[in-house]
Amino acid sequence: MPRYCILFLLQLVLLCGIQASATAADDTTIYVINKGDTLWGLSEKFLNDPKFWPDLWSKNQEITNPHLIYPGQRLRFVDGKLEIVREAAAPKAVESTPVIEQPHEVAEERTFTVRGNEGGLLEEDAVHSGIILASQHGRVLVGEEDTVFTDIGTNRQGTEGQQYTILNSSAVIRHPVTNEKLGKRVVPLGSLQLARVTESGSRAIINKSYREIAPGSLLVPYRNLERREISLKVAARSLSGMIVESYAGNNALAQGDVVYLDLGANHGVEEGNLLYVVREVVMDNMPVDPDTVILPHEVVGAVVVVQVGKRTSTALVIKSIDAIFKKDMVMSAPR
C-alpha cells in the first residue's frame, strides 16, 4: 500500500478518536443539587428512568436520606448512568462539561402525611382491653356522642374518664408463604371514654368516630390517631420481608395504598424506614442454567413504614412504577 494511503488512514483513525472523545464529553452533564431535589425526580429527568434511583442510593453511603440528596452535592450524568462526583474529583471536570448551577440551600427533610387510621395487624400477643357489648336502646350502629356498654370494669383496671381506641375485628391474617398466624387485620373506628364503671363492666360515651361502630368492636389502650408527619429514615440494618396484606384487602396495589408487612420492631424496622418493593426477574428459555445466574431484582416501587408492631408493620406505598401485589418482596437495599 502506498505510504500516502497509510498516512491518510492513520489520520482518519486519529480524527475519529478525537470526535468520539468530544462526543463522550458532550454527553456528560454535571448537576449541582438544589433544594427539594430527589433521586427519583433527577433519575426521571436526566435518564428518563425513575427506577434507577434505588441503585444510586444503595451504592452511595453518603446519601443518608433515602429520598433526598443535598444542595451543593454534584451528580454526573454520563453514558446513561448517574453517579456522585466526589469532592476531590469535582475540579477535574473538563471545561466542555456543562455544569448546571443552582443556589446552595439547606434541603428540607422529606416527610409524608399519614391520616392515623391506616390500621394494621393486631398480633397474637397484643391482648385487647375489652369489647363493646351493646349500645343504648339496642341500636345496631352508633357514632359520636352515642352511649355504649363494655366489658371493661375495675377487674380490668377500668376507671372513670379512661379512654380507649375502638377497632373493627376481622379474620386472622396468615403469612402467604409460611401460613403463620400474623394477627387480625384491624382498622381504627374511633374512640370512647368510660363514664360509669362497675366491677365487671362499664357505660361509655363515644367521643370520636371515623366509621360506623357496632357491638363486638375491640377496645385497646388509647392511641392518638390525628394526622401527623412521618420523616424518612435510613434503616439501621439490612431488612428483607414481604407484603402480606393491604388495608382494602386488594391483591393489586398502587401509590397511595396502605399495606402490611411481615417486618416489625423485632427485625429492626423503625417508623419512617423506606423500603423498596422488588420482584425477582424470571426469564424463559435462558441459554444457561437459571440456577447458576443471579439477576438484579426488578424495582417496582417504594413504601415508607408508618406504624410498627413487634413482628409486623404498616406502610404507605409512596411510589409504584408497576402494579404491586401481595407477596411482593420489600427490602432496604435492592440487589
Instruction: Provide the succession of SSEs.
Output: HEHHEEEEEEEEEEEEEEEEEEEEEE
Give the proportion of residues in helices.
Answer: 10-25%
CA-atom Rg in angstroms: 28 Å
> What is the residue-mean pLDDT, rounded to a whole number?
77
Oligomer: single chain
Q: Helical element count?
A: 3
How are the strands ordered across the major sheet?
A: 7-8-13-12-9-14
**Ends distance:** 54 Å
Mass-distribution shape: elongated
* SS class: mainly beta
For the record, the count of structural domains works out to: 3
Strand content: 25-35%
- Unreliable parts: 1-26, 89-96, 101-108
Largest sheet: 6 strands, antiparallel, barrel
**Strand tally, please?**
23
What is the compact description of this entry?
Helices cover 12% and strands 35% of the residues. It has 335 residues and is mainly beta.
What does this 3D model show about the protein?
This protein is mostly beta strands and 335 residues long. The chain has three domains: 106 residues, no CATH class; 102 residues, Beta Barrel (Thrombin, subunit H), CATH 2.40.10; 100 residues, Thrombin, subunit H, CATH 2.40.10. It has three helices and 23 strands. The protein has a six-stranded antiparallel β-barrel with strand order 7-8-13-12-9-14. It has a six-stranded antiparallel barrel with strand order 16-18-21-20-19-23. A four-stranded mixed sheet has the order 3-2-1-4. It is elongated, with a radius of gyration of 28 Å.
Please describe the structure with a list of short key phrases separated by commas or semicolons.
single chain; 335 residues; mainly beta; Thrombin, subunit H; six-stranded antiparallel β-barrel; six-stranded antiparallel beta barrel; 3 helices; 12% helix; 35% strand; elongated; disordered N terminus
